[in-house]
Design goal:
- 53% of the residues lie in helices and 21% in strands.
- By secondary structure, the protein is of the alpha+beta class.
- A hairpin with a 5-residue loop joins strand 1 and strand 2.
- Helix 2 packs antiparallel against helix 3 and helix 4 packs antiparallel against helix 5.
- The longest helix has 32 residues.
């Protein structure tokens, strides 16, 4: 990992190998960006299932407002329960991780690498392995998938493949999206504009 070869600070710094590096430490309790991302993904997934079920009912029974409202209530209750469970799980995860999400970014002309520090990566992999095992034993595919995803502690975005870049200066996050991957780049306020401009300048295939 990059942090094992270089002394990396929280400021964006250009190193002798021509790559920029910086470390970002985010409080999982004070800045629940990751939890909001989880909620957004779950909302999209549940929305897709709700639309699919509603379309099936429409073809079977025609338009029925009562049936639609019933489905909406059921999905709403299930979604609310899962959000509560996800929130409790997030608090446990945050406690195990020491209350912080610590990541090192390495950026050059071709792309940007997002990787957790060695200590946090080991913890995340253990949590992911346990979650995946519980999901497999219980037959819960979503839990198993979430656990497998949690074992992934690095993500690389190649600028040539990036289709969309979204920025949120208030939260210090730059979303670098490819067709099948979503990378979140965190950077402190002093260096935010530089990193944003650098990424936008290298992503030549952004959708207009």
């Amino acid at each position: 990992m990059a942090q094992e070869k270089y002394e990396v600070t929280d400021r964006v710094t250009l190193y002798d190998d021509g790559k920029y590096r910086w470390v970002y430490k985010m409080s999982l309790f004070k800045k629940p960006t990751i939890f909001f991302l989880i909620c957004k993904v779950m909302l999209i997934a549940f929305g897709a299932v709700f639309v699919f079920v509603s379309i099936i009912d429409l073809f079977r029974n025609g338009f029925d407002s009562d049936s639609l409202l019933t489905n909406l209530k059921i999905f709403g209750i299930v979604f609310a329960v899962i959000i509560v469970i996800a929130f409790i799980s997030y608090l446990i995860y945050a406690a195990i991780m020491g209350g912080n999400y610590i990541v090192v970014f390495t950026m050059d002309q071709t792309g940007i690498l997002h990787e957790q520090t060695s200590d946090q990566a080991r913890k995340a992999k253990k949590i992911g392995a346990v979650t995946a095992a519980v999901g497999a034993l219980s037959g819960n595919l979503s839990t198993m998938a979430a656990g497998m995803n949690a074992t992934r502690t690095t993500m690389y975005s190649e600028f040539a493949r990036v289709k969309k870049v979204k920025t949120n200066p208030r939260r210090g996050v730059i979303k670098v999206n490819q067709t099948l991957s979503r990378n979140q780049v965190y950077v402190c306020g002093e260096d935010f504009e530089f990193v944003k401009s650098y990424i936008l300048g290298k992503c030549e295939n952004l959708k207009k």
